[in-house]
Write a structure and sequence with these properties.
single chain; alpha/beta; eight-stranded parallel barrel; 14% strand; globular; binds 1,3-dihydroxyacetonephosphate
Length: 255
Amino acid sequence: MNKQLRKAIIAGNWKMNKNRAEAELFINELKPIAADKNCEVVVCVPFTSLATAVEAVGGTNIKVGAQNVHFEASGAFTGEISVAMLKDIGAEYVIIGHSERRQYFGETDETVNKRTKAALAGGLIPIVCVGEHLWERQANITEEVVSRQIKLAFAGIDAADAAKIVIAYEPVWAIGTGLTASNEQAQEACKLIRDRLSGLYGKPVADSITIQYGGSMNAGNAAELLAKEDVDGGLIGGASLKAADFGTIIDAANN
Ligand code: 13P
């Protein structure tokens, strides 16, 4: 099975939650749960908790990521954080193009592409988010929307770099709503993404890229979603805030 060719990655997206003390407490609880697991475990924490999280995961298999990054190297960009700054602090992953950033902070397919290129150039692993709104699904244009997002996110990126990117398929209607995509809907969209990647870079590259599902994934539904052929991991919001719940999802990916 091609699924074996890919690394399962379970990533928590804490969004705007947890201060430094809470981050440290969470990671200390997570350590024994994540130890000896085959899947990659990542926590994407607020900028203010990055240093604490990096220190807390020291000597473990848990990786730390940020939730956004600017595409310029430095300069007059008040409030922004560069790739080099994230590398300097010890982050290894960065979420790019989350729907909340697209919705509230003016993120576009063009800036997703720029951020992705900057992350790759600076040695951060991008987790690039794509996904349709409810009205787009209802209008039967999910395929068109997601294909366009993928094509533009990967524009100008060669195969060697493309292979380093992680994709998160997050249908916007499933985020924070308790509405999870059905296992079949998740599989269908992740397969569509892999087919598009295959068209861009060929099957071996497409088969090597980890595609996560995100949107109300939790301890109860993770195992079934992760069992699907093209669902290689999860990007988890709410359920990543409690170590026990996140641990159950990690266990599901490990099986
Ligand atoms: P929830 O798991 O809270 O639905 O959030 C998903 C998400 O946005 C992860 O990036």
